[in-house]
Amino acid sequence: MDEFKHHWATKGIALFLAVGLLWGGQSIFSQETNLEGLFNWAIKNYLEGKYREVIKDLELLLSYCSEDHKQLKGKIHLLLGAVYEQLGDIDKARQNYQLSFELVQNPAIDEIDLTSLQEYQRIIKKNPQPLQREIIEKPITRPKRKKRISPLYMVAGAALIVGGVIAFVLSKKGQEGEIEVVPDYDTRQMGIEWIQVPPGEFLMGDNFHEGENDEQPVHAVMLGEYYISKYEVTFEQFDKYCNETGLRSSEDNWGRENHPVINLTQSGASGFCHWLSRKTGKNIHLPTEAQWEKAARGTDQRRYPWGNSPPDCTKANCNNCYNQTRPVGFHPTGVSPYGVHDMAGNVAEICLDQYSQSFYYNSPYNNPLNTQMPPPSIAPSYVIRGGSWSADDFMGYRAADRGRIHPAFIRNTLGFRLVMER
Question: Which residues of the chain does CATH 3.90.1580.10 include?
Fold first, then answer.
């Protein structure tokens, strides 16, 4: 019954917003009042634990916000971060907290106490990096010009907006299966082994000046302690996730078991991380680009995980040595300084960062993560690292090499590994 009431209440608010925003000054309340009203409704649902409803409300609200609503957008992303952290989706929580912090350096929602949330404390309350830029690019503003609008266009526009809002509100709620959280769940039961990467500074980028412009400038990065999976995620591990959640696993080309999982999208890799985070109660996610590079090359700025000598078939599954993937850990002589396997070759690996060619020019010093979406004219893409078994796919095998993929990209040269932070 509560869900039914919320459904119609949200529908009513959405319709009111649509009409109010369409008619502007002719609405009985101001646009700001409408937006604040829906945000207050989201706060109410958060306090009642209706997290999925909050996400739906806030995503609707964001679609109506303009660049003038910077303060409100900061609060929306803050609340979205809290919701996703409550749901155990740490990747999305971090992204929204970072967006919130960079829109409004010290966002706050007076009605809600978020101090029990670890990612909130780490990113919002204890972020040592001063505000240097806004993560949302502002479009070029032009003087507003009043013009008459044909009543026919206004009616058609109202129909389109109301129809879109109704479709959004009435869309089916995602059926997410319950994941059993097992205290002290040992990921070794799944064959996942972790390598500790100690905290500290390293220099990130192409110090040999032999790569592309997006690998410059070389810059210092400070990372906290983290753990990276010793091997790439395998089909055997990914199939356990699919069997438990009822999802369809990805297709293999050369066998499953301990071959790296392939033919999956970025969201498929993130889904596995979310599932394992919920199952273990730990913060498990795709590596950030900086975490990946430090684990691959250490702190001595070597070209490749094993050193500076060129890659060959004894060190890595590269340059079409086998024309297919090999079982993880097949090349023990090519491990990184920390003992991480297959960081060059076998499959290229999806990272957590949005790709930006110029990110190194304004990358934060502490724990950088690029969540900035590109302008609408440019398709979004994620960073990939490490090269693959194919010499013709993606990029080379140097530790500083950067590649990019569209979120929906699927290929038999693409997989992923994990990072765990305590």
Answer: 187-421
